[in-house]
């Protein structure tokens, strides 16, 4: 009988490609050849593609404030996609990540108070857009790797208004973009600047920003992995129309996308950008509704020139009782939502059914971030 060590290398590779990252991380210690194989960039990329295309199970990442323990919690929530599950709740496995594993940097002062995160190919970018002094942290929860980024270049009299994180497919690298606004300019005139951190060089640099950003409505924007483009909703000063600002990770170029009047004039006071079936979608809703909530869902179907866009109103959700806000899609027709009593529920667009998620602990309303997470071997320690 052949052992693993006697198997042809291609057969062994095919077996290992289907194993979870934590197992593979341990298997590096088996022998030098296994270590070399698992660390090989080609193997890491093949493993990532398998996980991106796999639909057997699903994992989501939650950043939330646990009111019972008065602390911030970053959790991996895993569950099976059971199509025949007709219950009122979705069973899941919750794994809280140990944020104390984040290493210290002598040149960075911080207390680990994050406001949002972005995710791309297994790497999570944690940030606080309200503070220049809080660190930006990259981590891969699947292999428990953490990296505190060096402090960005100091821009006096500028405040941070937004972050973005994504993948540069042309240079095979990961980037963090940070957008600043001059704090002393009034309504109607504002100067914006931007800096980009590149994982491969472990450094920040300033880049050209020829569009103006005034105020980003949400704690975070949304990243389109198929286009390698990041989007923010830019709220303009009174009398001007709101726009989307996008950033191409490879070209390092910003675009200003005018929103149509049908969205500008919609009756809402809250909005959220999400990805749905590789399309940019927008939720419009009113946070002031005390009991029932109706949510409009719009989808961008055309953005050929980078500056104008065509949107279709896809559907209206609700009215739903005790729903506070939509969060993100975790399947094509399943949407995570926040309730007014601090629970997370899943709403099915087709059946219009709500199901609870068994995540322990009440959350601080309005401070929960969610994204679909893909487990990978991609390292945050630098290099391409």
Question: What does the model show?
Answer:
- The chain has 384 residues and is mostly beta strands.
- Helix content is 10%, strand content 43%.
- The protein contains five helices and 26 strands.
- A hairpin with a 4-residue loop joins β7 (137-140) and β8.
- It starts with 8 loop residues before the first helix and ends in an 11-residue tail after the last strand.
- The model has no long low-confidence stretch (mean pLDDT 81).
List keywords for this structure.
single chain; 384 residues; mainly beta; five-stranded mixed sheet; 5 helices; globular
Short summary:
The chain has 384 residues and is mainly β. Helices cover 10% and strands 43% of the residues.
The separation of the N and C termini measures: 39 Å
Largest sheet: 5 strands, mixed
**What level of helicity do the residues show?**
10-25%
Class per helix and strand makeup:
mainly beta
Which runs of at least 5 residues are low in confidence (pLDDT < 50)? Answer: none
Radius of gyration: 21 Å
Molecular shape: globular
Please report the total strand number as a whole number. Answer: 26
Strand content: 35-45%
Q: Would you tell me the overall average pLDDT?
A: 81
- In spatial order, strands of the major sheet run 3-25-24-23-22
Number of helices: 5
